[in-house]
Amino acid sequence: MASATLLTPTIITKESLVILENNLVAANRVNRKFENQFVKIGNTLTIRKPNRFTLRSGPGLNVQNIAEPSVTITINQQQGADWQFSSTDLTLTVEEFSERYLKPAMATIANKIDLDVLGNYTALSNFVGTVGTTPSSFSQSVQLVGRRMDDQAAPQDNRTLCLTPAGYWNVAAGLSGLFVMPTAKEALVKGYLATIGNYEVYMDQNTPTFTTGVHFTTAGITIQALGSGTTVSTLGWQSTDTFVVGEVFTVAGAFNVNPQSRLSTGVLKNYVLTSTAAVSAAASTATLTFSPAITTSGPYQNVSSSWANSSVITILTMSTASLVSQNVPNNMAFTRDAIGLVMVPMEIPQGVDFAARETYRNISMRVIRAYDINNDVFPTRIDVLYGTTVYYDELAVRLGG
Question: Are 141 and 163 within 8 A, CB to CB?
Fold first, then answer.
């Protein structure tokens, strides 16, 4: 009589981890370096960003004030998948267990992590591309995001471009005549096109689609009065206009600058709405809250000049004026440090049938199994705990499609 082979907690846990990691795309391309900092310190970590300085000319001392920039990441996402199986199911092999339980459960968790990482796009201010036109060539994809990121002095290494399925296959078709043998070979890898222009180009079905606000007109919208560094009163809207977080706009005469030389790049600075707004029907005005803050001088200067009253505002994230919201694919290009993902190990409880935790390539998950004596089943849960946020807005670009 053949002996039964029972799955041990460690075997189940390690198999789950491998499947989870293999289902991730964007989550493996972003910053993961701070995960070991979240040990008994609470759910929030403040991360320092590099300081910048202005140049002194001549021998005279010119002491600069230090104002260390920082960004905060919060661990606030607990996601998981739950099921139960009978004691008979425990005699299945690892492969069968994976097919019936782990693969569908891990695909669900992996999809959520990927969605949350790419969901940071609404905090990104840089936007290029033609709304309504799916990228189909080098000049409509890598060239656009590459120039914008170079203007922002983004590092050349660890660059990623995530495209929608439509964008990915359009770009692949556009480049097919240019493939050399090694590139053509890499193009056969699932979800990975090639390294083109320093970008590793991937297809990701979770690449977001942005739902715009409703704007009756895209012309004649002007600055009425500048408020703080992140608010502005604007004029020329209709009472039916609505605003959503993530809409990107430019202001005439306000150009982006290189972060080191502070020289204009010749491209209008992009700003992203960080909150909704309401239109005053009587005065057709709306106060917009945006990011990044206007900084016109000093080591952190990010725009060529301040905004002048009556300057024209242009919305980039929609194609034409519309009385309904528009759905716009937002492909994403970024360096590793543009977005952060922190996954932390969860506590192992006592008093259950078993509880285990394993780490594989910095992905930590927990499996807990209990026993229901009344029904002879084993309720099982898999959990991950993580947080994600934008570290450096200037190191990422949204590519409209």
Answer: yes
Report d(CA 57, CA 63) in Å as an integer: 12
Q: What is the pLDDT of residue 172?
A: 84
Q: Which comes out higher in pLDDT, residue 35 or 133?
A: 133
Tokens for 3, please give them.
């002996």
pLDDT digits (tens, 9 = 90+) for 273-331: 999 988 987 789 999 999 999 999 988 899 999 999 999 999 999 877 667 788 999 99
Cα 333 to chain centroid, rounded: 9
- Tokens for 212, please give them: 């715009």
CA angle 234, 397, 178 (to 5 degrees): 140
Residue scoring higher pLDDT (103 or 184) = 103
- Per-residue DSSP letter, 322: B
d(CA 113, CA 120) in angstroms, rounded, equals 12
First to last CA, the chain: 62
For range 43-55, the mean pLDDT: 80
CA distance 101 to 353: 18
Angle at CA of residue 196, ends 30 and 135, nearest 5°:
90
Q: E-assigned strands of 127-275?
A: 127-128, 159-163, 192-196, 199-203, 209-211, 222-226, 231-235, 248-251, 255-257, 264-268, 271-273
Work out whether strand 44-48 and strand 248-251 pair parallel, antiparallel, or are unpaired.
Answer: unpaired
Residues 377 and 369: their CA atoms lie apart, in Å, by 10
The Cα diameter of the chain in Å comes to 91
Q: Which helix (H) or strand (E) holds 153?
A: none
CA 371 to centroid of chain Cα atoms: 39
